[in-house]
Amino acid sequence: MTRDTDPETNVEEEMRTDGGDVDTAGADDVQLDPWGSSTVSDYRKLFEEFGIEEFDEVLDEIPRPHYLMRRGVIFGHRDYRPVAKAMREGDDFAVLSGFMPTGDPHIGHKLVFDEIIWHQQQGGDAYGLIADLEAHSARGLTWDEIDEHARDYLLSLIALGFDAEDGTLYRQSQNRDLQDLAFELGGKANFSEFQAIYGFDGETNVSHMQSVVTQMADILYPQMDEPKPTVIPVGPDQDPHVRFARDLSTRMRFFKVTEAYASFEADDAERELLAAAYGALRDDVDEDEMVRCEDAADWLEAELTPDDVRDSTVKKLRAAGKEPLRPRTRFLDRNATDEAFEALIEAIDGEKRRYDEHVDAFDLSRTEADELAREVELDNEGYGFIPPSSVYHRFMTGLTGGKMSSSIPASHISLLDDPEDGYDKVKSATTGGRSTAEEQRELGGEADKCPVYELYAYLLSGDDDEFAKKVYDECVGGERLCGGCKEQAAELMREFLEEHQEKREEAEELLEDLDFSLESDRRGIAPNGE
């Protein structure tokens, strides 16, 4: 969920939002490393390999989408629809993201700042956190270094528009409720998962592993008081954290709600066959009779070609014999106390059947069952977590080409840079221009490969889509030459930094008044420190 480098990316032709590069030949395999500087050569691979969904598919469902969404900078999501629905209907939702304070905040981090602030302005409960435990354990920073950088991140977040009085800011190390939640989540995780997801091995220090569980708690923290749709804006390198948190949110639930047809358990593929058999047979029985499991087994054997799924389904049906085959909603006991399980049974209206580890309801829809399970869980001191959603933005290309990195000053513009230095960095930036002005006029520039155009699309155009498109069209049409384009961008960057730093000064007083400790009272040597 946190990062301090911005690997390279391209901006698409005509602001494409399908996640693909213009030229994908020889694209690298995608590897998502939350602590590395991995690059993404082809964003479409993230849809295929990791199940990230295209953001274009939900764009029309979002009231007043942010320009980063409209321009395809936010290119993907996981399960964002519940958040969009809450936004449209005025229901509660939340947004959270965090920052590992390993260096100065720069324009790459501004993408996340903007996403938090926009969701807050749409009515969401907004959370910004300083991932100081992660910085200490994974990057080896001292607490004094962390304190210094944490202040800078918070000042920029507030200066850009975060409402600190309405939102929540915290440090991982100073939030006891967060640490208690992390302890509970740790009981649902095991070392083999850390190996599979993050590549941890026998050399990984325990504090680093603990910081991962703390990040899982961060992602679920907005739901501590009540469940609500929650979105985590991140770069795609943080997707492993999101997937792990979604898994843990499910494992923490008291009950698992599924659809079933008989007393035995079936997987998704088997349930499809049970549904098909029931649908085919139910109209052939009299009103006072029921479809029997053995009848469904006969039907499957007669109608379907043998395969592993058919054979396993038939075997289960034969074992059930004359048991009725009937659709029902099933509540499986996952973590419920005895009191919660009894409360659930009592709360189910209509026909129901109790078993040792589950109860079947015959008059509840799946949606009604989900709501009832969460209600009973909350009444019995459970969390009732809703799996968190996420949105993914493209990485910014470094001004010198390649990745944008905090460790390469010329590659990025810090939000703390002197405005004149920001101007000079833009003037010295690599472009997507041709070798000569004549060639540029004839062939047009390559805006899709230009770090300077990214500055326009991601930051300098603000909410003005027409201006961003005008710069793009003039570049690829050969009307705009790199010298004038960089001069305009450099002037806009200088103005942005001047304004931002004035607002940072105004934010100083506000930050001092917040219930937030900017100085850590912790002692110790970072696990990976010198």
TrEMBL record:
Q: Which family does it belong to?
A: Belongs to the class-I aminoacyl-tRNA synthetase family.
In terms of Pfam families, this protein maps to: tRNA-synt_1b (PF00579)
Could you tell me the EC number(s) of this protein?
6.1.1.2
Subcellular location, in the record's words? Cytoplasm
Q: Which SUPFAM superfamilies match?
A: Nucleotidylyl transferase
Native source species? Halogranum gelatinilyticum
List where this protein forms a coiled coil. 486-520
Principal location class: cytoplasm
Give the superkingdom in one word.
Answer: Archaea
The record's InterPro entries line, in alphabetical order, gives: aa-tRNA-synth_Ic (IPR002305), Rossmann-like_a/b/a_fold (IPR014729), Trp-tRNA-ligase (IPR002306), Tryptophan-tRNA-ligase_arc (IPR020653)
Q: What does this protein do?
A: Catalyzes the attachment of tryptophan to tRNA(Trp).
State the protein's name: Tryptophan--tRNA ligase
- Motif ('HIGH' region) positions are 101-109
Keyword presence, RNA-binding: no
